[in-house]
Amino acid sequence: MRTDDQVVQELPWRWRAQGTIFLVGGLGFMFDAWDVTLNGFLIPLVSDEWGLTKAEGAWVGTANLIGMAIGAFAWGGIADTIGRKRAFSLTLLTFSVFSVAGALAPDFVTFCVFRFLAGLGLGGCIPVDYALVGEFTPAKVRGRVLTAMDVWWPIGATLCGVVSTALQPNWRAMLLVMVLPALLLFWVRLSVPESPMYLVRRGKDKEARAVIDGLIAKTGAKVGPWELPPPERMPRLSAMSMVQQFRDLWRYSAKITSASWALFLTVFLLYYGALTWLPSILRAQGYGNYAAFMVTTLMTAVGIVGVLVSAWLVDVVGRKWVIGLSGPVSALAMVVFAIQLDIPGAAKFWIGVFGFVIELTIPALYAYVSELYPTRLRASGFGWASTISRIGAGFVPLIFGSLLWPYLGLPMTFLVIGVLLALASLWMAVAAPETKDRELDQVNREVLLP
């Protein structure tokens, strides 16, 4: 007899059913992109207002990204403990409150504190959203859907660029404009159902059956008899439960966890380094605020096409091939961009290439890592990988602006990151399984085989 997992993953995809979860989850992801992209626009404007050096201005991005790193770690574990739905809503509420506070900050130190706290809330959006969407999505389209989730990132980044360009140099208004739609989304998220896979493992059979029966009705599928497995023992939320989740991830598979962490770290070292500092790089090259902001916006807008292509490729050639090839190529594009920075046409072309190719990598990576872990570890597994990437990337603005760019130069900086990314891709090739066309539990069973 089939289990609840099999029923949910064998249902047909319908926009009024699983599609609603995809849209609501994706909008939260959009705000994550908006906020991260905003760092690049805030750095030059805040530096002008408070007379900051390049190294001091870098703390705008570092404070926010470190907050997101801690948030990704904390909220991933929280979602595995209190449920996806509750964590789903609280992440945005925290972000909204501290974004308003940041817009009203009287000095630079206070501003950085509030950027850190806003990041703490928003950092949970990605692991929580991907866990929830993945657990509602049928296996046959899961790779495509989870990859397509990332289309919200370049949409959010592009909206940020358009709004920031229109509002510059008023950086306080740039922060406030995000808050109203974020609060509206918080209200909408209250109607999203809890993950049935989570409910089953919590022993909440009645609630789980109600959610699954609702999905069956909305999709119009004909489903035979099915049963609920016995509940799993899941830890209560505490500092020790977080430590235990860390241990469980490595006990489950040291190879998978190390490959996931290496990929997240190197891909986002490259992406956040480029995104955070591109406006400042272009301003140093002689571009005005408007031109520098619009070129950055162009880079993110091209990424929308990249996500759509990635969503198609992951189910054609597999997750590993997309990640392993596109990641190093995107780093190469930034090396060439840096070499040809004095040629405006060529520089814009290569930054466009980067914007397209990196968005082949990131959505495939998100889909892939969210499929590698069992239900009890899915949100925390993704959250820990995201945490590692954002801790590393969180120091990129500071290291990039005070050490790498001034001493190594841009081409060598991007080359070093590219080599690290290529090594991480090679490790993934031998250490982690392909998840294309496989049910989540099937991947789990194969990993546990001797």
TrEMBL record:
Keywords tagged on the record: Membrane, Transmembrane, Transmembrane helix, Transport
Full protein name: MFS transporter, putative metabolite:H+ symporter
UniProt entry tagged with the keyword Transport: yes
Gene3D superfamilies noted in UniProt: MFS general substrate transporter like domains
Domain Major facilitator superfamily (MFS) profile: 21-436
Cellular component GO terms held in the UniProt record: plasma membrane
Molecular-function GO terms, alphabetical: transmembrane transporter activity
InterPro entries reported for this sequence: MFS_dom, MFS_sugar_transport-like, MFS_trans_sf, Sugar_transporter_CS
PANTHER family: SYNAPTIC VESICLE GLYCOPROTEIN 2
Keyword Calcium assigned: no
Subcellular location: Cell membrane
Topology in membrane: Multi-pass membrane protein
Pfam family, one: Sugar_tr
Transmembrane segments: 21-46, 58-78, 90-108, 114-133, 145-167, 173-192, 259-278, 290-314, 321-343, 349-369, 381-405, 411-430
Major subcellular location class: membrane
Position of the signal peptide: none
Species this chain originates from: Kibdelosporangium aridum
